[in-house]
Fold this protein.
Amino acid sequence: MTLTTDRAADTARADRADPAEPDQVERGPAAPRSTIRALEAEAIEIIREVIGEFDRPALLFSGGKDSAVLLHLARKATAPAPLPIVLLHVDTGHNLAEVLDYRDRVVAEGGHRLVVARVEEWIADGRLQERADGTRNPLQTIPLLDTIAAERFDALLGGARRDEDRARAKERIFSVRDAFGGWDPRRQRPELWRLYNGRHAPGEHARVFPLSNWTELDVWAYIAAENVPLPSIYYAHERDVWLRDGMWLTPGSWGGPREGEPLERRTVRYRTVGDGSCTGAVESQARTIEQVVAEVAASRLTERGATRADDRLSEAAMEDRKREGYF
């Protein structure tokens, strides 16, 4: 799939003209009448496959837009029954307050069980050490793997998409991790005709990505069609920021700005959420969903390329982290 203005317009027109009801989506492959509804049906099928096939699945929920859409889809997949799986968040301690407030509100309103792996606990007892550059994004891997083992999760539903990064583009929808949480892209299983293989040995687990075939624009079109609530940081607002490597960073517990990085009041929004030390905002006037959809359709930069400093370290930065067990 490609991210084009024409496709965005087609999708938006289709959804406005013929909004499918949830019961239409579940009738089979002929029922969906737009790209968004076809993607929704595929994701719901994958989520039901995971819930039916695995003993202890969990859903990764950070409060970001992709995990918000994933949770919305998971609720649809099991409705009218409540969602029978746990939510998991690895909290770096450097998250924006608006995102954590949103996370806790969604969990409380939905009556979900949330497991939080706090990176600061691993630092406090010596299992991890702070990095010299102050970012904690790469430090999430060990708390994630430790929590998977402690909770005996055998599958994790994640909101990663193939259009985000070339390493994520390589990954199958069902992706088995070895007993150490590692990923080997050369040992992936074929997925033909939507046949998913969740078989795994004791100690292994699967990462499953129902939004693999979605683009950033698809996610926003779905958020608009379904009125999925998001943290306020996704829409243009004024805040104090400083500029580093082309990204507007927010002051916080992670430090900054450095000498020579003047603090400025700017109108910005976030395209992705993550560790505050390496996740930046972009200048924007998009204050509504419709304005964000138009802005994303016109952008020629991926959200991670535009706003994630740790992905700029090398061309293989994401793949290196994923091989070690990262999301």
